[in-house]
Write a structure and sequence with these properties.
homodimer; 294 residues; alpha/beta; Arc Repressor Mutant, subunit A; D-Maltodextrin-Binding Protein, domain 2; two-stranded antiparallel ribbon; 11 helices; rod-shaped; DNA-binding
Chain lengths: 294, 294
Amino acid sequence: MELRTLKYFIVIAEELNITKASKILMIQQPPLSNQIKNLEDELKTKLFIRGKRQLKLTEEGKYLYQKAKDILRLVDETKSEIHNMSLGLKGVISIGLVEGMAPDIAANWISSFMIKYPLVKFRVIDGNSDDLIEKMRSGLISLAVITAPYDQILLNSIKVGEEKMVAFLNKSHHLADNKKDFITLDELANEPLIIPSRKTHIDTIKKWFKKNRKEPNIVCEMDNYLDAIALANRNVGVSIFPKTEYVLNSSIISKDIGEINANIEYLFVWRKGHQLSIIEDNFIDHIKAVVNHK
Amino acid sequence: MELRTLKYFIVIAEELNITKASKILMIQQPPLSNQIKNLEDELKTKLFIRGKRQLKLTEEGKYLYQKAKDILRLVDETKSEIHNMSLGLKGVISIGLVEGMAPDIAANWISSFMIKYPLVKFRVIDGNSDDLIEKMRSGLISLAVITAPYDQILLNSIKVGEEKMVAFLNKSHHLADNKKDFITLDELANEPLIIPSRKTHIDTIKKWFKKNRKEPNIVCEMDNYLDAIALANRNVGVSIFPKTEYVLNSSIISKDIGEINANIEYLFVWRKGHQLSIIEDNFIDHIKAVVNHK
DNA sequence: GTCTATCATATCTTTTTTGTATGATAAATG
DNA sequence: CATTTATCATACAAAAAAGATATGATAGAC
């Protein structure tokens, strides 16, 4: 069975007259008769009752008529959807988001992009920066918001946000009490620390202490931000993580870390030298526009 | 475009290798290359990225792969249904199930129906309500369980379940702490919201707030229930979605929304004004009987 | 540098579809 | 009731499409 056959069948079912149908289809009548005969043979069912001077659909014929229209409509819609896709109006954008501020940053882009491109859907992939970079390398995702640093050979980037690394500690912690709104590295050197497990972060934090000729007491490297907060909340120690104000609850407070520049950058990244889909290109343009207007 | 072409395309899309595909299809490789080339010409889009030694599907190719399988399945089911038409005792029932409680509801029907009609097989199609309605409109499926509302011109319906819309939020969220087991709309008005992308849900939620003279701060519309939960888990904001207890995990909690009637209805629906197969008719009767006996 | 795997192109062959001619049937017409 | 007309079916030729064979191009693998 081919789509051509179904098209022919539909016209005949509507006209109930092979000759007229053949004129509409601009082919001759005998081939049309043949096509229907072959279709009936293939389905092992009569589709028409050849009565007297007029055709009539059998029950099977009526059923096929509906389904044939469904099938052809589905085919047509598929064609036009693919056309929309190739114009960059429709599709799915998969974007990796690191924990922290990234989902918040991206939510803004997504909601404004959706107004312009209502047919586009989003798929969010979670993970830490290293996970996401690995997923980009393997081609699983093409777009992401991660924290610096990153592989500049592999990825293009735009800076889209900045955040302080701060110390999280429970209200009842002895360092929480003092009146300063920052903690010194000397104070931190005596505390058990919970820090992000990303290698570059560990290195950075070690460097801070090395400058002050101290050794950090890292008791726990955590992948997950929320778990780290939970540990700080239980007074296991002080967590050093990006501030991200909206996750704070009442029992935990954050303090700046004195003496050092503890900023981390959020970067929107996409794969270099790799053919992106047209929607992805449009989305990147959109982000560039948003970032530049600020 | 013909069905033959789609069959060929599917095998190539699965093998990502024209030579292997040609062996599976038992034709030679050059005509296969040609068919794909013609298909691409017809659609005015590249379906494969010819990279180095391996083929890769483009976004358009991936889309066509899904649709081509839908189309061929519809054709096969139509053929076999025409075969079985007079019997009504065997065949395949395709039913769409929305995420949430629908699979649970349908499981009951299916198991009791199978006792009565042991030769009938089921095929379940997943998707959100809008997807499923779209598939019903396009004739891909004739039966589904979706959430209200729906197009009453297109579909007949029976109410088969009800569930609350609730707010999902991370344990550490400041609104999670208070002792009430519900959240007021005033509280929600200040929060970033993640809500189902379905238009009617957005409208409903806006109406809730309008009654209280507030404006909701919708930061993300998500198609996918689990992704929405993931974002809530990341404290991007509060997700408003149907409760469905079995997806809850330990770090996320749900709260009722005060002041409003936030129920959503589950409906069993089937296509209006369309001749269904005899098994499908039997299945609808079965469901009516089950629902009425409760 | 040669070999191998893979896809593309060119050309010929086969199959399928379409067209033409014609026959069969039965309702409409005079 | 014979003739005309409308309609579908069958037979066979022509055209188009699909498939096969041979071969070329390219880029990893060896």
